Structure formats: C-alpha cells, structure tokens
Amino acid sequence: xxxxxxxxxxxxxxxxxxxxFALFTPASAADRMLRLSTLAPxxxxxxxxxxxIQDRMVIYQVYEPLYRQNEAxxxxxxxxxxxxxxxxxxxxxxxxxxxxxxxxxxEDLKASDVVFSLKRAMASPKVRSYLASVTDVTAPDDYTVxxxxxxxxxxxxxTQTNIMIISRKEVEKQGKEFGSKxxxxxxxxxxxxxxxHDVEWTCEAFADYYxxxxxxxxxHYAPITEASAGLIAFESGELDWYIAPIANxxxxxxxxxxxxxxxxxxxxxxLAINYLRPPLDDDNIRKAIAYAIDKEAMNIAxxxxxxxxxxxxxxxxxxxxxxxxxxxxxxxxxxxxxVKKSAYPNGTHVGTINCSAGxxxxxxxQVLQSNLLDIGLxxxxxxxxxxxxxxxxxxxxxxMITTGFSPTGDYxxxxxxxxxxxxxxxxxxxEGEKFDYKTMDALWxxxxxxxxxxxxxxxxxxLSDWLANTATQIxxxxxxxPYVWTPDLNIPVNYPNYPQICEWSWAK
Length: 508
Prior knowledge:
Largest sheet: 6 strands, mixed
Strand order of the largest sheet: 14-18-13-17-15-16
CATH topology of the largest domain: Dipeptide-binding Protein, domain 3
CATH architecture of the largest domain: Roll
Shape: globular
Helix content: 25-40%
Number of helices: 14
Number of domains: 3
C-alpha cells in the first residue's frame, strides 16, 4: 500500500511538472514564450521613478526615449523623434516627433505627451539629473518639441536617452497608482500583460509598434536574487537567456548545449565613502582606504580576472573621458603611511560596508574588508536587498558602499553621482564646508557648455582630479557581462547593459 501511495505521489509530481511545461511549450515557435529573470524584483514600472538597472532592463522593453543610444556602436538612433536641430545660440534643441507612433492604448503620440514626459521627469528625484540644464519644454505644434536650456548643452542628446516618453492620458488616469499596476502608457515593442512586482511579470509584443512587431511575441520574467539559483534555473531549462556567474564561465563555454558570449560592459564598479561620518571625515583615513584596495584581487574574486581595472570613473570610449590624472592604485605601504598621518595612527574601526547581497558587490566588500585589515583598519559588512541598499545610499545613510553605475556614453553620465543639485541621485553629498563644491559644480557646467570635444576633455580631466582628491568615490573595475542562452534563440547582438529583446527571434 505504501508503495502504491508513493508511486501516486511521484505520478502527481510528474504530472504537475508536465502541466507547467505545457504552459511554456506552445505548439509553434511563433507563440513560444521567452523566459528571462532579473536579480531583483521590480520596484516600479514607472520609467521616471527608478534608475535601478534591474528595473531598466525590463522597462526599456516597454518605453522609449526621443533618441536611443546603440550600446554596441555608440550611435544615437531616432526613436520617438525622427530628427532634431540645435538653435543658433545653442540654447534650444528642436525635435521633430515621428508621426504614426502609437501608445499601447492605441492612441497616437503627440508633442504634448513629450512635453508632459520631460516636465514630469524634471520633477522626479530619480531622473531629474538628466535634465538638469533644461528650463522649459514647449510644443509649437503636434509634432514639434522645443527643449530650452539655461546654457549650451553639448551632452543633451546623450542624457535624454535616459528619459522615456509616456502617455499623459494613462498617467493622469492612474494618478498615484501609476507604476504599481498595469498600464498602457508606453510606445515600445512590448507592453505589460501581467504584473506581480515581487513574483513574476509578463509582456507581449505590441502589434502596432511603429518599427514592426517583435518576432518573439511573449516574454515572461521572474526575479531570482541568487546568481547560483538563476544558473540552476537556466541549466534545467527554466530560462532561455541568463547573465551567468563568472565562476561558472569555463564550464558553460565548454557545454555544446549552450551559446555563450563575454561582453565588455559600459559599467564602473566603485567604492563610495561617506565623509560625513567619522572616522571617514578624516582625509587621511579615506586616502588610506583608497590605496589599500587591491583592485586585481577584487577582479579575480568577482570576475575571475575578466574585468578591466578602472583608473577613472568613466571608461575611455565615453565622450570627454580623461586619459590621465589622479589615480589610486594598490599600495598598502602608502596606505599605512596615511593611517599614521591620520587622527587614528594605531588604526580604528571605520564603520560598515553596505552591499547588495548575493552578487559580486558582496565579494567586493569581502575583499575590501580583508584589505583594510591589512593596514590596521577594521569594518563590518551589511548585506542588503538591492532596493534597500539604493535607497540608503541615495539618502547618505551609510558609511561605505560597493556599488556601480552604467553611463550612457558620455562623461556627463557621472553628473548625477556628484553634482550638488542632484539631491536624491548622488551617493556622496559634496555641498557643505569641507570641499570647494562650487568649483566642482562650475566644472560640470563648463563641460557641457562647450561643443569642442578637446576642450570638454580638458575640463573633465580637471573635474576628475578634483573628485579623486576627495577620496570619496574610488573606481575599481569595469565589469563584463557573461551571457549564456539556448541554441534555438537567435540574438544578433548582446548589448553591454540592456538587451534589445525586440531584435531576438526563435530558430525556425
């Protein structure tokens, strides 16, 4: 009897598994659902309310900006706008809005929606840094938008790529609930059809997408916060594409059942130090920490040595990025000298390192903890979920953080992490008595005021040195993306940060 019951239980389990696979195994490739995951639950689907890369990997499938930057080529490609011109005084960008663009609710996109979107973004603490120089946005007619700025802004086409255009009607209809429930407010290749922020969400290809309906019609996401668990899900066939743990890279590349690609990412992993908290308010302690960091050890621990060591916060391929200047390289003896010169010559406890749990930021924190111990400094590690970590970081409720950011091809992309008017987006608050922050702000403003690339680089080199001398944001490495996917999935280009699912297709 026990054997019969046990057999029945196994049979029921097998049938349950088959039922699940039936949901994800349609009769034809055209209807086959693409299964993806993120490293964190969605915090919101409001594109103006987040700069979290896990949110954006999803949101960028649903919403579009005026222009998108192609991460592979660096070129700016028209999306909601079809062209733009710059006024003679360099204070206005005039965009011609593409005709025939429809929102997911079926209504035509008009210039008034663009005006609404940009002004709404200007009021959002999360993304307003991208529009810091904008003073007004107007629409002379239904297909023209004029963006006026307080000074010439050579980086505006770059920064606007972060601002998604949304339907005014949809947002006003939902009010404060927008971002927390299903909406048809985007113009992108996909729209949300099911939404449980912490559990799963699905998208479908938009039939009236102005660039043509995406080949893959259905996409399913589920957050898997542990990288090892995500890899197990991929290897067992529950996911079709995954950003794999680098520790498993060699095994994955040698497996003929998978396709793999290691893609250099336009991303900088760094350490932020909150100088407002003692003993980190001591300049010598911060510089001791900066010189104590073994960047190569972090690279090996986090990316098996595949990442690129970072001298500067912005990579050389980004417009205006400096090629030389103040750099902190691993020098434990120099670090010890700074400790001796500090108010704590015998060492001290320097607080806690906050990090997002379960990923490479945690490994960075572990290596840093060991590095600091070598020079007589001790610290703790606080492992947090990604959303909590970001909220604490942006409100300066931390001692140190291991974190990262992905600029959009221009040095201006770092403004949001330092410019004093970017309250709510920066990690380090420079405004105050300790630093000559007005000089920093003036350099930021001067950098975008000129359209001369050589002059921009000269200004940004000064700015980079100014920020480096504060020893508050220390670049560590530029990571790589270890992509792995199933052989029956065609991917023309794996982009460094944000996948373009609308370009993917199933093999016939």
